[in-house]
Amino acid sequence: MAETAYLLLRHRDIPNLKKMDVYRANGGFEAFQKALMTMQPGEVVAAVKNSGLRGRGGAGFPTGVKWSFLPNNIFPHYVAANADESEPGTFKDREILENNPYQFLEGLMLTSYAVQANDAYIYLRGEFWQIAKQIDACIASLESAGLLGDSILGSSYRLRIHTHLGAGAYICGEETALLESIEGKLGQPRLRPPFPAVAGLYNKPTVINNVETLTNVPLIITHGAQWYRSFGTEKSPGVKIFSLSGNVNRPGNYELPLGTTFRELIYTHGGGITDGRKVKAILPAGASSSILQGTDAVLDTPMDYESVAAIGSALGSASIIVVDESTNIAHLVHNTVHFFKHESCGKCTPCREGTYWMAHLLDHIIEGKAHQEDIDLLNEVASQIQGKCLCALGEFSIMAVLSGIKQYRSDFETLVAKEG
Amino acid sequence: MVNLTIDGKLVTVKEGTLVVDAARQIGVDIPVFCYHPKMEPVGMCRMCLVDIGRPMIDRTTGQPVREVDGSPRIQFMPKLETACTTPVSEGMVVVTESAKIKASRKEVLEFILTSHPLDCPICDKGGECPLQNLTMAYGPGKSRFLFDDKMHNQKHVPLGDLILLDRERCIQCGRCVRFQDTVVDDPVISFYMRGRALEIVTHSEPGFDSIFSGNTTDICPVGALTTIDFHFKARPWELKSVASICTHCPVGCNLALNVRREAAVGGKVVVKRVMPRQNESVNEIWICDKGRFAHHYEASPARLNQPLLRKQGKHIPVSWDEALDFAAEKIKHAGNRLLTLAGGRLSNEDFYNLHRLTTARHGKPTLATYMAGGDLTGKLGLTPGSNLADLGKGSAILVAACDLHEEAPIWWLRVKQAAQRGATLVVANPRSTRLDLYASHRLMYAYGSESEAILSLLPVASGSAAAKSLAEAENLVIFFGSEGLGLEGSARLARACAELLIQTGHTGKPNNGLVGVWHSPNLQGAWDIGFRPNPSLVEDIRSLAGEGAAYIVAADPAGDDPELADALKQAGTVIVQDLFYTETARMADLVLPAAAFTERDGTYTSGERRVQRFYPAVTPLTGPLPDFAIAAKIAARLGVNLEAQFAPLIMLKSIANDIPDYAGISYPRLAEVKPQYPILGRMDVYYGGTSYDNQHGLGITLPNAAMRRETLDLPPMIPTSQQHLGDVFLAPITRLYDQGITLQPSHLLDARKTQPVLGIHPRAAAALALSEGERVAIEQTGRRFEAAIHLDNTIPYETGRVIYLTLPRSCRLPANQPGWVTLNKITNQLPVEG
Q1: Is residue B152 within 8 angstroms of chain A, CB to CB?
Q2: Please, are residues B64 and B57 in contact by the beta-carbon 8 Å criterion?
Q3: Which of A63, B567, B671, B681 fits a disulfide with A53 by CB distance 3.0 to 4.6 angstroms?
Q4: How far apart are CA A145 and CA B322, in angstroms?
Q5: Cis previous bond, A76, omega within 30
Q6: Are A43 and A32 within 8 A, CB to CB?
Q7: For the residues of B43-90, what is the DSSP string, one character each?
Q8: What sign does the CA torsion over B739, B743, B749, B750 have?
Q9: A388 and B80 in contact by Cβ < 8 A?
Q10: Is B551 within 8 Å of B331 (Cβ atoms)?
């Protein structure tokens, strides 16, 4: 695979990369061919394990390790690509799918080969229906080219890829809800254990990877794990697409090595803050983040999984939402909570009832109808959701609330009704 | 076995046990809403959060880390865990009582209550509501949620014609959805929408189309699902629970009749609702909707309330003395020309007295039934120690000539579950039925060749896969019914089934034997006591002309069959003893009002030959007497001294003395209970639902000749006549909701009651140029009737072969006799006047 300035957003260097002939002319499917012809599935798993690639969907779990959990005495295995990109502020997978679809598909094919799956599913959020059409066309051309189907490239390996559109639910990006949805059921998370690696899609061992994660795989197979480790940090190797949004001059996707600082992203790449104002707060993982204050210490923190966690938040899917001084944090929290209330699946009590309650409290605060003690109540309601939910959605719903009240209490206080 | 500590108490439980169930075994209550011990856990409600620690393992050595005192160091998880989804593990330490857990429970309850309407004062569930109880125990006294922020949803939404849903009260635990989906496989309700808008909807037409729907109201942990039958009828704390047995089919489901003294009917105690009573060997904690909703007949205003004597052609109310004198006089003069025809609704005590009276007069104790084989089930019935719940991998079940889903729903459920656990299920029926879905082997035969079909399963070298699997099974239970069969056919079928059990060595041991799918609750008891069906009943009744007497108890031969009605006209005296003024009663010289099962006590013997007791529940009507008492009073006038006129207790003693299989049966033994799992029915109700604890006995399964290794002395096998005597064969079938007298007064089931239609395969109908709804005339020996055509592709049809018609029994058309009929199109139909 030819080296360009970009590893994932290679279409920015190579025009028409979304066309199969262009992609092939630029080294496309060489990795897949290499794996199929010269590598055992286990070697592909080992290569990805050694590369240190971590899941880009948010949790940052080591991808190769995840693959190695699949038991080799239960078949069939399935692979599901998570293209349900729904985190507010995240728009990286969309760019890949729209402009560099074959690199993603090649990654999916490599993953399927690595875990010996003969069927792979791409779960796309419902709003991506046009992308789904495009992906379907890509799959069709791969089939006519003999890269998908039975005995691929003359080998005994067969693979089919299917697309599946969601119906507009954020929760279906949660991997077990995603599986339920593919199975035609109501999109609600499953109980774990059993984990999908053991009992996933149709109760069979299943790997679920994010689009961006998969798009990394061809590079690792072509260039090797050591090469891949030359990017990023020791524990967070590789590059990451940072979706930058909020009060910045140049919002957009930025592919940078993991470990790049917030300051570099916001000021060097993002062109600084609108009207030269100061950074007030950063949500590093979209609506699911604890809010980081725009201090120098935070701005100089490298954006890798460990460093962001160390300052009390999470890198997640790296949707960096920047908020400047002109914004009242209570309004921001009002927005995130309404999002979670709207997206709560309703399966577990604390999330279903808690997000509804928090949304009402924040409505009262925003409307100036609340009192001081309502801020405390909001804080308590958020605290009593914490640690009780069935899946991460409920736990994420309180991040902005707790960190917002803790760090920006005065923003809330200016909105509540004056006593007397 | 796994050892763990819960709140400092050591407990040893089976591997795989969930923490919540382990705790319950030592009396530690972990509150739950969504968890139900009969279903897989889902961990949704988060009420059961507890602190769980496990022994810490040193990663380098693999050895447990020890404290200074040598005890294993316990590592607790940072978050609380759901006790309902966590299986026990060795050395686990569970803490259910701590400030943290107290707070957690209070917080979860506060969340649940934010959306709850708190309308307990007008809620049917108030008083037996898990949410109410758990809130009292663990909840906050006061909500911090603004009342005006509550989401308002629809109240009393009819999900169907039996079940109401209150969407405000629903806490989205999904017990009902999971019950319908995983327990009874009728996934007709489900969740719709998401978040706070998540709600239960039905998507069947008609709504909530399931014969088990009532159970969801028992397991609903709030007042979201209630039955229309009980809606606003009483408060649970006003109700007393009386142990009873269902009278609608041979399963013998254990019931709790909920009764209350009712001002509106003059202070009488009446049944307000019917609930299941836990018996893990019979119905577990479930009952079907017929058992739950078809109880109204016992309190019907149409009940007979005084003896009626025919004087100058008219039925005139008379005193019991006059009535009994008349009966005794007529029976006396009848001599040995007394025919006592009794139906399977009677208790063992009734049958016993009627049998004693009849045989003392050298009369003929005759069973009113179209199904034979009770002699064989008596010899080869399910052996004590059997439980359908024990059948699984390695066991086999054969279901022959019946549609269990319609005829005995709880057996259907338990057979289905056995098949799902891995038991081999062979379904032999001419028509496809709901059980086919779970069958390992499906044996479709033509109506009329039932016994040949069963004999084809005998273990021979060239046997089919089905035959092999039956022969090799460790256990074999055979259910046989009467689909398309009369007395002769069912006798042959039972004999063939007995042969199969004997030849495959499946007799006389637990979890093996023959079960009759009777059409009444106590036909097995009747057979055991000595009543027998009579293949020449018409002739025998005709021969009662002159001085002869027909004493007809709990049976309506004239209503069932015009030929019998005709014969009864020739009988010298007809005495009818019943609950209702039946067709036969209308023809009678004397009508005697009998007490309903709710007004007295007695015992029934189920199809599994389990003897179970029912208790008096309501204030009896003043007029009627129990059937056994009427028989005893008549007998007394004839100088036959039957010990008991009023106390079934003494009769049960006599039964135990006289009938060898019943030896040792007594009220104390019938009342024995032993611990059952899951542990249900405590005051808390949160765990298993409103199912009632069984404190009144689990019943006793009768021994049989096979287990005593006695010579079985079976009747010879008679080959079926394969001769075709026509082109059209009429096969009677049994439907759950028929139009029999015990169902008629339950009007809330009206929409579900089976119509008297002739089922025919659409292609067969096309061949005869018949269309849906078209009326045709059927002629069968001695009878002619008209009925509408109903197209049904479950009915067999092969082009150019016999045309099969099905006709539901007890639906106001004579449908008890299978056979060759003539089908005539009704031409020149006169225009309807009016």
Answers
A1: no
A2: yes
A3: A63
A4: 100
A5: yes
A6: no
A7: --S-TTEEEEEEE-B-TTT-SBPB-TTSSBPEEE-SS-EETTTPBP-T
A8: positive
A9: yes
A10: yes
Q: Is A203 on the interface with B (CB under 8 A)?
A: no
CA distances from B321 to B317, B328, B795 (A): 12, 10, 53
Q: Which of B107, B144, B198 sits opposite A352 (nearest CB)?
A: B198
For residue range B60-97, list pLDDT tens digits in order: 888 889 999 989 999 999 999 999 999 999 999 999 99
Q: What is the DSSP string of B696-762?
A: S---EEPP-TTTTT----PPPP-PPP----SSEEEEEE--SS---TTTTT-GGGGGGSPP-EEEE-H
Low-confidence residues in chain B, pLDDT < 50 = 834
d(CA B615, CA B642): 22
> A–B: how many Cβ contacts below 8 A?
95
Pairing of strands B602-605, B610-614: antiparallel
- Residue A44: which residues within 8 A CB-CB, separation 6 or more? A35, A110, A113, A114, A221
How far from each other are the two terminal CA atoms of chain B, in whole angstroms? 78
pLDDT over 70 (residue A3): no
Pick from B49, B144, B196: which is nearest to A388 by CB? B49
- For A390, the token pair is 């069935």
d(CA A66, CA A43): 15
pLDDT for the residue numbered B834: 43
Please state the rounded mean pLDDT for residues A378-387.
97
Residue B173 to residue B112: CA distance in whole angstroms: 11
Nearest to A291 by CA among A260, A315, A313: A313
Distance in angstroms between the alpha carbons of the first and the last residue of chain A: 70
Cα–Cα distances (Å) from A409 to A406, B54, B757, in that order, read 6, 40, 75
pTM: 0.95
Using a CB–CB cutoff of 8 Å, tell me whether B195 touches chain A: yes
For B182, the token pair is: 């995983």
Closest CA to A110 of A180, A63, A173: A63
The chain A residue lying nearest B50, using CA atoms, is A388
